[in-house]
Amino acid sequence: MKVNIDIDDKHMEPSITIQANEWSEELEEIVSLIKNSRRKRLFGIESDQTVLLDPNDIDFVYAENRKIFAAINRRSVEIKMKLYEVEEILAPYDFMRFSKSVIGNLNHIERFELSFNGNLCVYFHSGNKEYITRKYVAPIKNRLAMGGQSDDR
Fold first, then answer.
1. Taking every annotated instance into account, which residue ranges of this chain make up the domain HTH LytTR-type (predicted)?
2. What is the spatial distance between Cα 90 and Cα 104, in angstroms, rounded to a whole number?
C-alpha cells in the first residue's frame, strides 16, 4: 500500500482520499480507524464504584438478565450501556460478535473446540470460555485468518 501526504498552506482542513480498484476488508478497517480516531471510554460498575475499563483487558462482553457485563479475567464488571453501543466502541480493538448476546476479543483467544451442534467453544488465555454460534463462526474464522489476532503469546 502506498501512502502520500501533502502538507501545504492551501489546504484549509485535512482531507483523506483513498484510491483503489475495489473495496476490501483492509479498506473497511482503514475507514473504521479514521472514523474512530477519537475513541470513547468504557466505564464499568464494580462494588458501587465506577471504574475505567481497558479494552485490552476484556475477554468478552455479554448480556445477562437485561444487564451488560465485561468478563475480565475471572471477574465480571457491569457496563451501563446497550450491547450494540459497547460493540461500536470495542470494534477497533478487534472485538467481534460471537452470538446475539456476546462480543468477544479476538486477541485473547487461545483455542477453539467444535461443539456437537455446530457452535464453537472459545477458550481465552485467562481460562474463561464462551460459545460462538454457527451464524458467526465463518466471519470470525475469516477475520482470524486475515491476521485478526495480534496477541501472539
1. 43-146
2. 9
